[in-house]
Specification:
The complex is a heterodimer.
Chain A: H1 2-23, H2 25-46, H3 56-86, H4 88-93, H5 101-127, H6 136-164, H7 167-182, H8 195-203, H9 205-217, H10 227-250
Helix pairs in contact in A: 1-5, 2-3, 2-5, 3-5, 3-6, 3-7, 3-9, 5-6, 6-9, 6-10, 9-10
Chain B: E1 6-15, E2 18-28, E3 33-37, H1 44-51, E4 59-64, E5 67-68, H2 73-79, E6 80-83, H3 95-105, H4 109-123, H5 139-150, E7 157-161, H6 169-184, E8 188-193, H7 196-202, E9 205-210, E10 213-218, H8 220-226, E11 230-236, H9 242-248, E12 257-259, E13 264-269, H10 272-286, E14 290-296, H11 300-316
Parallel strand pairs in B: 3-8, 3-9, 6-7, 7-8
Antiparallel strand pairs in B: 1-2, 1-4, 4-5, 9-10, 11-13, 11-14, 12-13
The chains are: A mainly alpha, B alpha/beta.
The structure holds adenosine-5'-triphosphate and magnesium ion.
Chain lengths: ~250, ~325
């Protein structure tokens, strides 16, 4: 019985997020279009002149896919912060619902939105000349790695919102994800950067995912050796932040 | 079961250096309305949040509907409804969506939740709000929806934290009517309020809270009696003679209040009829014209100020 309740509670909370989308189609659309605009900007305006063997768009698209996953953190954090401040979470917590259903709803909605975003971005990428060469299995594998990274970002976002869910902090994170995003190999190869910067970029978990995705898709800059790192980094982040976020939520009242 | 609906013994809660609850005791019998009365920062919301399992107390015994809030939180949650001090609604969704969602989370089933939402919208006059999201509701509509949301399951124990703050007199009357009809159905209500009139009208018993503890409790009538004697109010026609009038009255000056704006002198008295006659005589002899001389019981306002004020003085001393 309680397992059935758990499923039903999680579904109710997911439906709530979907109902929010239906209420704010423009906001959802902007969220989806923003990475597409970034892709077009970097592809046409900034692109070229970068030491990449092969067409720049083939290097850029996997980078943009990865960046979109990382930037998702900020969306998660905004949503959780808003819920906490609106007091609706208080009502959820005073009801006999399944522990964690609130977080499951958030997670399901964010992952779904990210998956849609990925498909849209690959579609636009294809339209501007990007090609994947690895076959369907490798393509799905790449999507899996990207969503794994997003899943890790999701729990970091929930944790940050629970620890200090103030609008000022959300703004700070909105700004800080940019240097983190750019201190990766999303747009340019670390080989073309000064030594210390290149090292920082190589160690950015985002770079591992981008490199592995490039390898799976047969795009320039890919190194199959990075597959392990692309799995381990997000799993490590999850191992830290998932329990922290869950515990923090359970202890909201202390 | 004969256990009280709410039982609190020596509850403590600290926020950093601040003792929000400092050994609070509270007992509420089933099917009664209990008023929690106190000034800003007294600890009313903290008490309600602990009772509703939203906040953990540091020390003391807290039981609701026969269950310990700390160890049996889920059982408590099945039996309670909560109307917090601030709205706890999904602002993006409309009223029906909110109530259906809460109904599902209370495990009424899809059909049960829909039926319940419809009935509650009807009952609280929100049936024609359609698809309007809550963020575009007026304050009164929001409060009514919030109250409806706290009644999704016919709770055994209902917590209302300042339910009518910010409502106009009509909205206030509506909330009062709802509370009365609920109690008729056997629900126990704990109500916090800053309106003494509200506590006086709705509550069977009142606890006056100050600085995290109960400083007085009893029925509204008992509290009024406790706060002191009956009073005689004299309204003087000529404001210039107010002090003169206060001086000629045959009562000790200590308990006398002089309200200059209303040209009114108020004194506590013991022997009702003799005091009244003596007052009229004293005014006549001094040639002071009175507009009104009235014998009355103290209001809850006076009780409240007296109880919380006394304690403040005690602490300052
Ligand atoms: N989360 C918190 N962190 C720090 N202090 C708090 C917190 N919540 C309440 N307090 C403090 O505890 C005391 C009691 O607050 P509480 O909200 O219970 O008062 P109240 O009686 O509901 O007041 P009001 O009539 O203003 O709603 C206040 O001094 C308040 O500042
Ligand atoms: Mg309060």
């Amino acid at each position: 019985m309680s397992a059935a309740y758990a499923v039903s509670d999680c579904w109710t909370m997911t439906r709530r997020e979907l109902a929010h989308w239906a209420r704010q189609p423009v906001q959802v659309l902007v969220g989806l279009v923003f990475p597409v605009m970034m892709l077009l900007m970097f592809g046409y305006l900034v692109g070229g002149g970068r030491a990449v063997d092969g067409p720049y768009v083939d290097y850029l698209v996997p980078g943009m896919l990865t960046l979109t996953m990382v930037f998702g953190l900020e969306g998660t954090m905004t949503a959780v912060t808003r819920d906490l401040r609106k007091g609706v979470v208080d009502r959820f917590r005073a009801m006999p619902m399944t522990d964690g259903a609130v977080l499951v709803g958030r997670a399901a909605a964010d992952m779904l939105q990210s998956a849609v975003g990925l498909l849209l971005l690959t579609g636009v990428g294809h339209a501007i000349g990007w090609r994947a060469h690895g076959g369907p299995g490798a393509f799905l594998g790449a999507l899996g790695l990207l969503l794994l990274l997003r899943f890790a970002m999701l729990w970091i976002g929930i944790f940050l919102a629970l620890v200090a869910g103030r609008p000022e902090l959300v703004q700070a994170v909105q700004i800080l994800v940019w240097p983190v995003g750019f201190l990766s190999n999303a747009f340019a190869s670390p080989d073309a950067m000064p030594g210390w910067l290149g090292t920082a970029v190589e160690w950015n978990p985002m770079s591992a995912t981008a490199t592995a995705v490039r390898a799976l898709l047969g795009n320039p800059g890919g190194e199959p050796g990075h597959l392990g790192a692309a799995l381990l980094w997000p799993l490590l982040l999850l191992a830290i932040f998932f329990p922290l976020a869950v515990r923090r939520f359970a202890r909201l009242g202390t | 079961m004969t256990e009280d609906a709410i039982l609190v013994e020596g509850a403590r809660k600290r926020f950093g250096e601040k003792n929000a609850l400092d050994g609070l005791d509270l007992r509420v019998a089933r099917g009664t309305v209990h008023g929690l009365l106190g000034p800003n920062g007294a600890g009313k919301t903290t008490t309600v949040r602990i009772l509703a399992t939203l906040l953990r107390h540091d020390d003391g015994l807290v039981r609701v509907a026969g269950h310990d809030v700390r160890t049996e939180a889920r059982r408590v949650r099945r039996r309670i409804g909560l109307l917090g001090q601030y709205a706890a609604l999904d602002e993006e969704l409309d009223g029906r969506q909110n109530l259906e969602m809460f109904g599902r989370l209370h495990h009424l089933g899809a059909r049960g939740a829909t039926a319940r939402a419809g009935a509650l919208l009807e009952r609280f006059g929100l049936a024609d709000t359609g698809r309007t999201p809550v963020k575009r509701y007026s304050g009164g509509m929001r409060r009514r929806l919030d109250l409806a949301a706290s009644l999704v399951t016919d709770p055994d124990v209902l917590f209302l934290d300042e339910p009518t703050t910010g409502l106009d007199p009509r909205g206030r009357g509506e909330v009062w009517d709802s509370v009365r009809s609920l109690v008729g159905g056997g629900t126990t209500v704990l109500l916090t309020t800053q309106y003494l009139e509200e506590a006086d009208r709705l509550a069977d018993r009142i606890s006056v809270v100050d600085r995290g503890r109960v400083v007085a409790d009893g029925t509204p009538d008992a509290l009024k009696t406790r706060a002191g004697a009956d009073r005689i109010d004299v309204v003087v026609r000529d404001a210039a003679r107010l002090d003169e009038a206060a001086a000629v009255l045959p009562f000790p000056a200590a308990g006398t209040d002089v309200d200059r704006d209303r040209r009114r002198i108020s004194v506590p008295v013991h022997d009702r009829m003799a005091s009244l006659a003596a007052t009229v005589r004293a005014l006549e002899e001094a040639g002071i014209e009175a507009e009104d001389v009235a014998l009355r019981r103290p209001t809850l306002d006076e009780v409240f100020l007296r109880l919380t004020g006394e304690r403040t003085a005690e602490v300052a001393a």
